[in-house]
Amino acid sequence: MEIRQPCRFPLMTSPGPADKSSAFFALNPKVAARTPLFCGIMAGFGVLIHTMPAIPSPIPTTPSRLRRFACMMYEGVLLFGVLFLADYLFDTLTQSREALMLRHVRQGVAFLAIGLYFILCWRHGGQTLPMKTWDIRLIDRNAAPVPLPRMILRYVLMWLIPLLAIWLVGRLSAATGQASVYSLIVAAPFSIFIWTWFDPEGQFLHDRLLGTRLVNAKKPANP
After folding, report:
1. Rounded CA gap, 40 and 21, in Å?
2. CA-CA distance, 216 to 64, in Å (whole number)?
3. Which of 32, 56, 102, 113 has the fewest CB within 10 Å, making it most exposed?
4. DSSP classification of residue 58
5. What is the per-residue pLDDT across 88-103, written as a single tens digit (0 to 9) for each?
6. Which stretch of DSSP H or E encloses residue 160?
7. Could you give the CA distance from residue 42 to residue 40 in angstroms, rounded to a whole number?
8. Quick one: residue 35, left, alpha or beta (phi over 0 = left, psi -120 to 50 = alpha)?
9. Which helix (H) or strand (E) holds 215?
């Protein structure tokens, strides 16, 4: 009497959920021996399982301008404390008695203090405290953490448009002869939003140049 060997499915040997299917069919040799066509069908089924494409992860979306604006306002509150501490240490170490003493050095210290605040926060999950509050995260174009050199360059480049806006306010004040025009300087930090209306994803100019992104950190609720 001829004894037929049970069909095997070598395609279902990798660890994972497919092992359960392979074990199920291997435990039914009688069924497989009776119907050779059954083996072919099941082998094709195994190929189908292993060739099915993985479900792509959802593409992170850009936070709204309103949320980013609110985040910037919150950052301003925290930066007041950062600058106060940096200025206090500077005055203590230099024995400065007024804000105009060593003015340019003082501005450099403030620039470094703000940069240190942002970079240290971005290094820990790509978020500052306001960014955590408003569910905003900094990542690169591959949804990976941003490396330190690019964080430093991002901080430097984020000043370009606000500094240009400050310069334009100064030129406008000189042209009109009205010192009150300088009050417009308070809007200079928010001039970075101008580019977002031209960017296809609504990102800031410095993020577009460096390949970084601000995305929604809050995961969508399960349906």
Report:
1. 15
2. 9
3. 56
4. P
5. 998 888 887 777 778 8
6. helix 160-176
7. 5
8. beta
9. strand 212-216
